[in-house]
Write a structure and sequence with these properties.
Strand content: under 5%
Largest sheet: none
Number of strands: 0
CATH topology of the largest domain: Cytochrome Bc1 Complex, Chain D, domain 2
Radius of gyration: 24 Å
Number of domains: 2
CATH architecture of the largest domain: Orthogonal Bundle
Number of helices: 5
Shape: globular
Bound molecules: heme C
């Protein structure tokens, strides 16, 4: 019984120390995570772009261009997504620069390579 209590005491100590360190530790690891983990372009596209471009980029609602046919470079896409063009709404302030870069890359990877 004494042994059991001792183990319990020690593990409680370890647990207590561990949780004391958690706030600073988790802050540091959170920062690392957001840096290491790039924004999910696919998820962003599904959330913000499918209304007009559709899930496959070819819905052409409100005059939206068929993204499968787009020959724009990454930089040109970033420009259009950031500042909008005609009917397309600007996403500056809605998405971060990193998110815009990710979703622009997604439109290239997912659609433009198709013939
Ligand atoms: C309100 C409807 C609408 C939404 C929402 C929208 N777009 Fe567009 N998009 C358009 C229209 C309309 C055009 C054509 C603009 C023009 O050239 O007149 C366009 C053009 C584009 C082009 C340029 C294609 C080309 O070859 O000229 C890209 C890239 C693009 N959109 C990506 C996106 C992405 C990524 C999102 C989500 C972050 C998005 N769009 C959300 C309507 C929309």
């Amino acid at each position: 019984m004494k042994k059991y209590l001792a183990i319990l005491f020690v593990s409680t100590l370890i647990f207590a120390c561990g949780s004391e360190e958690t706030p600073s530790n988790s802050k540091a690891s959170n920062k690392k995570e957001t840096k290491a983990k790039a924004p999910d372009g696919k998820k962003i596209f599904k959330t913000y772009c499918t209304v007009c471009h559709g899930l496959y980029g070819d819905m052409e609602v409100n005059g939206a261009k068929d993204l499968n046919l787009s020959i724009l470079t990454h930089a040109e896409r970033v420009e259009i997504i950031t500042n909008g063009k005609n009917v397309m709404t600007p996403f500056k302030g809605v998405l971060t620069d990193e998110q815009i870069a990710a979703v622009a890359q997604y439109t290239i990877d997912a659609f433009s390579k198709k013939e």
